[in-house]
Amino acid sequence: MWSDKWWWNSRIGDQIKHVNNFMNSSLIGTHELGSSTLRYDNDQFQATIDVQDFKPEDIDIRVDDNVITVEGKHEEAREKQDEYRRERNAAYKHFLKRYYLPYEYDNNRVESRLSSDGFLTVTAPKKGVWVPWKISTDRRIPISYGSRTYTSRPWLKKLSWK
Question: SS3 of 53, please?
Fold first, then answer.
């Protein structure tokens, strides 16, 4: 019976340690999250996302108050036909990432850039002086790629066979 209490207490102690470590750690630093990396520092918020399988026009970046949403959709359809058979193939890829932007970062100055190796970087500078967020509506952020700028295309069109 004493060993059961000891086990219970040690698990609670471990949980309390994890909660304390989480509460004591600041947001400043770099955090790996699967195919993306988040960095909060004294100058800016930065999210880097691997989007190698997507074209710039397949990616949509939106800011709604303090939430940055990055979404990518790619649809491809092919039809191949010879005298004996007819084949139709379709491929669909999709990702959705949402990032909470703390109040000390400027949600009205969010920018994005796509590198030649397929990494999308979304940044928001830190505010110089604390200013409350402006009430903003959902807005789209263009993607800079080389010397061009892309905005997302409407995704409500039907898949067409080529």
Answer: coil
